[in-house]
From TrEMBL:
Alphabetical list of SUPFAM superfamilies matching this protein: all-alpha NTP pyrophosphatases
Gene Ontology BP term (one): response to stress
CDD domains associated with the record: NTP-PPase_MazG_Nterm
Record protein name field: NTP pyrophosphohydrolase MazG-like domain-containing protein
Top-level taxon of origin: Bacteria
Stretches with biased composition (Low complexity): 321-348
Any GO MF annotation of the entry: nucleoside triphosphate diphosphatase activity
Protein source organism: Actinocatenispora comari
Gene3D superfamilies xref list: MazG-like (1.10.287.1080)
Domain NTP pyrophosphohydrolase MazG-like as annotated: residue spans: 141-217
Region (Disordered): 321-367
Amino acid sequence: MGRPARIVLLHTSPRLPAGLLTARAWRLLADAVVYAGAETPQAAAIRAAGTDVTVLPGPASAQADALLAADADTVVWLAGADGDGPLGQALAERLVAHPEPDERPVLEAEYGSFDPPGARLLDVVAVMDRLRTSCPWDREQTHASLAPYLLEEAYETIDAIDSGERAHLREELGDVLFQVAFHSRVAAESTAADRFDVDDVAGELVEKLVRRHPHVFGDVAVSGADEVVANWDEIKRAEKARDSSVDGVPLAQPALQLAAKLQSRAERAGVEAALPPATDPDGELGSQLFELVRRSRAAGLDAEAALRRAALRYATAVRAAEAAPPADPEPAADTTPADSTPTPAADAGTEPAGTTEAGSADARHAP
């Protein structure tokens, strides 16, 4: 019985459809004896293409012995989703201990398919489906109950951006992505005619981005970023058919940000409107803040972000003040007039001058 000259561990992406392999992988499979550790969609697809696949149950040591004893020039192992690391280790140990170094097989790794960018999003969808069906808390959630978490995660993402810590930002962006997946999964369970799922969300996003970037996906020419924004607004107005330039502005956003957005929408639409006069102190304060936002925008500043940074500086100052050691108490002030002269009445009942520190001082100041 012969022994293999090559043992190839063929890795494939579990996120791509089974059987979607490179041409190099298919050529390799056509000339090899193929094994796998379990019945998988990939093994079934390869069989359907005309190549036999033999399943070898574990443990890894037994699988390694079987591969080394195979009667074939080339042996291919269909690695599982976890990569079958123990099998690779078992093969390496046996090859190192091979009694005839010149005759030991070559151990190779080949990749028959690759994860394209964004492939891990499929894992997010799969995990979300599992949570929705298996976790009591996740099963109970609705769009309304999840809304506070969406807002909280957005604020935490802003905190991460302000911190400048990229690992923190990566984590918080993942939390925001989870909210998108969660809401999409909840919507997919609806029986209404307007139900949707995560593919509908992604598809609508792609269509909108393509439609609103005709200078990228079409033949529209632009002179710069300002014209891109103008085109975006024009396309959006045609899509939404709104009566006012300020329709569609989220009114629940922070007040300074809301004021800036309303001003921006009106200016871009060429609408000039004065703020109605205030009739009470509360309204007057609001008018002053509204004008401050306008001045900030004119200076190219973000009032919301500026106030946020100021608040953070104040929080830092408060923490520093709380951590500072208490100051030494001030010495008690001497309330005795500098030119006072002791009188017999004042000295009545006291020790003779010079017998105490106080008496000595009085004696020195006496005429």
